[in-house]
Amino acid sequence: MTLTDTNPTDERPRTRPPAGGPAPAARPRTRKAVLHWVAVHSLGVAAALFFVLPFVFLFLTSLMSDHQALTRDLWPRTWEWGNYAKVWHTPGFLTWWRNTLLYAGLGTLLTVVSSVPVAYALAKFRFRGRRLALLLVIAMMMLPPQVVVIPMYLFWAKQLDLSGTLWPLIVPMAFGDAFSIFLLRQFLLTIPDEYLDAARVDGCGELRTLLRVVLPMARPGIAAVALFQFFYAWNDYFGPQIYASDNPAAWTLSYGLESFKGAHHTNWNLTMAATVLVMAPVIVLFFLAQKAFVEGVTLTGVKG
Amino acid sequence: MAPNTARAKRRRAALRTAAFLSPWLIGFAVFFAYPLLSTVYFSFTRYDGFRPPVLNGLANWSYVFTDYPLFWPAMRNTLWLVVVMVSCRVVFGLGIGLLITKIKTGAGIFRTLFYLPYLAPPVAATLAFVFLLNPGTGPANTLLDGMGLPTPGWFTDAAWSKPALTALALWGVGDLMVIFMAALLDVPKEQYEAAELDGAGARARFRHITLPNISPIVLFAVVTGVIQAMQYYTQPLVAGKVAAGVIGGSGQQFEPGYPDKSTLTLPQLVYNVGFQRSDYGAACVVALVLFALSMAFTALLMRRRGGLIGAGD
């Protein structure tokens, strides 16, 4: 079930008001339908304003002069496109970009590679303790990261001396991510066993069955997992705060953005320009992969 | 020979299963079981991260529950968020989901616009909202003032900071919208048609057909919302820090939960006690309280909705 598949637009064109034609005849049903259409779409426009205006205001403010951003004006008097160049050339900004891409990119790759076999075993193998394993995966998925952060911090910082880097955030992703395992398992359940049996009859081992038969069919599920994991790392604030806060060279965009505000506390225009620059890639990625993303949301519910 | 080969076969299957599960088995041991047990152990010790931990019985527990001045305010804030923010989000998400199923013209555009804010990275979205709701010069108050409405202090007023966070959470309601939309479109059309023939009005159809059909999804949204609310960390922390800086200027010592502890949540306490005051023992107590609450709600989710585990079990 995806947004695109269930698009209600083309289902009942007959309830649309005749566009530009002669006024609808006074048949009560049609009149009622027109009024209903107007009411629904007015509500829709009102809701759209609520969702869109924040973007509009922050974008307009990002283009104001330093001085005007401190006033109550809503519209820029002069369009200061240079604000974006200023933010881009802020010392550290490019490093934060690089770190974020490393954390999100490498982390996503490791998560997918390590989670797929686990999800496959949980979905398709019969073994004792499978239900227990699944319950533990769900428990891990629901665990707030703050619960185990103190021993984890001591482990990475005191025993392995890796504080001030992003490795404490990236390395664990090589050992399966509970949410990804869960989502992939739900997806793999929808693949009929007959395909796997056919591959086994042809003499494929489990690994070959997974790589040759299951992976190609699971592509939408893998895409959804990859997107979620990428967004998770992109948005993560707590992780970098714990492990990287004392070393600005290891900061990510999400963490650096907040300090950016601290350093430019009177420059709302620059802060908003930086905010736009952090939001933009995520939104572009969404448009490129809209279908996979929405599929993932419907498949499992929510990731925070 | 036969039992021997059967046993060998079983052993091969068990080895194969273990091999496929191995990344997670290691992850479970190193990143879940071990730190969880350590957290329990540290909660009974005096530990500052430098000198080795010393057992001190229930001292941390009684300190957190009776003497630590931030624990109960954080608990109350977390409960406020669990009750008010979650119910607002579910009701609003359901409303937006209903609206989007009724929109016939430009549905794709509306859906995308409604969904986009959900994708805004939390730090960026929070910064944007602190700016929009900035009491003096922010666009929100400028608009409210223009309409002759009162202009609250939002993130700088202890009575309004949690409603402001709720507004931020409503802005990002896209995930719930998608789930509710899918559920609403799954309600069998025949039921509506039959009710319409019986002369049921729109409200009666919503109460007697829509709600019963989507109630499992509503429950799912409530419970996952509660779990998220208990993990609520980045938005209140960033909002408090930035709003405090806006008022006091940068470089000023940040008061946790600005204004007046009103944005302090339990997860923030783990950070404050553990990493800012190096009292790892007491931080572990707060962490375990958080753990108990999360697992209680997770158990509720799984009892009431076997669907989370789904087919095959």
TrEMBL record, chain A:
InterPro entries xref list: MetI-like, MetI-like_sf
Residue ranges crossing the lipid bilayer per the database entry: 34-60, 101-122, 134-154, 166-188, 209-232, 268-289
Record carries keyword Membrane: yes
Membrane-protein topology: Multi-pass membrane protein
Keywords: Cell membrane, Membrane, Transmembrane, Transmembrane helix, Transport
GO biological processes: transmembrane transport
Main localization category: membrane
Family in the record: Belongs to the binding-protein-dependent transport system permease family.
Stated name of the protein: L-arabinose transport system permease protein AraQ
Automatic annotation (TrEMBL), chain B:
Family annotation (Gene3D superfamilies): MetI-like
Broad class of the protein's primary localization: membrane
Family annotation (SUPFAM superfamilies): MalF N-terminal region-like, MetI-like
Subcellular location: Cell membrane
Assigned keywords, A-Z: Cell membrane, Membrane, Transmembrane, Transmembrane helix, Transport
One Pfam family, short name: BPD_transp_1
TM stretches of this protein: 21-44, 79-101, 113-133, 164-185, 213-233, 280-301
GO cellular component: plasma membrane
Superkingdom, taxonomy of origin: Bacteria
Its membrane topology: Multi-pass membrane protein
Biological processes, Gene Ontology terms: transmembrane transport
InterPro entries: ABC_transporter_permease (IPR051393), MetI-like (IPR000515), MetI-like_sf (IPR035906)
PANTHER family recorded: ABC TRANSPORTER PERMEASE PROTEIN, ABC TRANSPORTER PERMEASE PROTEIN YESP-RELATED
Family: Belongs to the binding-protein-dependent transport system permease family.
UniProt protein name: Lactose transport system permease protein LacF
Gene: lacF6
